[in-house]
Specification:
Chain lengths: 149, 156
């Protein structure tokens, strides 16, 4: 059994395996498959029902269960939802696994998964991964075509 | 509508995100669909040999207790009952259902046909080139109810 607490290294090895078999395209094809299947009943459903507030609700549950260190800010007037990740448990775990070679582009899966779900709903998910070596990142969900009166 | 802010420290919560079982199941299904069962086994072997290096080193030294501690720890983290029989030369553990498969089923999804390999291939790869032999004694594909044995090779 692969415990849910061992999932991160298992996924990292999975991405490496897919890239070995079919290049980066294979990894992106899997992320698209995962986005379509995994997020359909969770993030997609909540974002359809409640927009940015649905995004807030989705990540509140997920990041609490992942014991992340973060600040989430929802500004519905400005049409922006931001997650400032002070310490990502997934990236943090990979950074600590110094005895194994982890998948270099692991964190790219977030933007690939979430933007694919939110874009058709008029929202864009973008990530700043410039501090990923410190297990920090900033994710922003921005509502498109916000009216500015 | 104003602003809504939520601040959390890692220490505020326990690390226990069971939805990861769903994502893992989808990775198994994807590799199975795209490349076949042998590729699922190849992936799980690579994962085991990379991630479980420290445990494999202990098994190479003949330290079966390290495996016992490992089994105890993962089922404790899963909050799942496990029955372990342990002696110097043999470790057998059994579960009434698999925690991962149970969560997948409870989430109205179907465990991958290849799910069994997260036990069979993973434990087999763990024991390869060590002094221990792994055997899957039983496995129910519907629930993951199963029994697994690890025996010192010169005692099997």
């Amino acid at each position: 059994m692969i415990s849910c607490t061992q999932f991160i290294p298992a996924y990292s090895e999975g991405f490496k395996y897919l890239e070995k078999r079919g290049g980066k395209k294979e990894v992106y094809d899997f992320w698209a498959y995962l986005s379509d299947h995994y997020l359909k009943d969770s993030l997609q459903k909540q974002a359809v029902e409640k927009g940015l507030r649905g995004c807030f609700d989705y990540w509140e549950k997920a990041l609490n269960e992942e014991a992340a260190d973060f600040t989430m800010t929802l500004d519905e007037d400005e049409g922006i939802f931001e997650i400032a990740m002070h310490h990502c448990p997934s990236r943090g775990m990979l950074n600590e696994l110094t005895y194994m070679e982890t998948y270099e582009d692991y964190c790219e899966h977030c933007e690939a998964l979430y933007d694919r779900v939110l874009k058709p709903l008029g929202m864009r998910f973008k990530m700043d991964l410039s501090e990923v070596e410190q297990a920090k990142c900033v994710a922003t969900v921005k509502k498109e075509n916000m009216r500015r009166d | 509508m104003g602003k809504k802010i939520l601040d959390r420290k890692a220490s505020d919560n326990e690390y226990f995100h069971r939805d990861f079982h769903l994502s893992m199941n989808m990775l198994l299904d994807y590799i199975l669909m795209r490349f076949g069962l042998e590729s699922v086994k190849e992936y799980l072997t690579e994962y085991t040999k990379a991630y479980h290096q420290p445990l494999i080193q202990e098994l190479k030294k003949g330290n079966l207790e390290a495996l016992k501690e490992y089994i105890e720890e993962i089922y404790e983290k899963e909050k799942w009952p496990v029955n372990i029989e342990y002696s110097n030369d043999n470790l057998t553990f059994s579960i009434e259902a698999c925690p991962g498969m149970s969560y997948i089923i409870d989430s109205h999804q179907t465990p991958s046909e290849a799910y069994i390999e997260t036990y069979r291939t993973t434990y087999g790869a763990m024991c390869e080139d060590t002094t221990f032999h792994y055997e899957m004694n039983s496995f129910d594909q519907a629930t993951g109810k199963s029994r697994h044995s690890f025996t010192r090779r010169d005692k099997s």
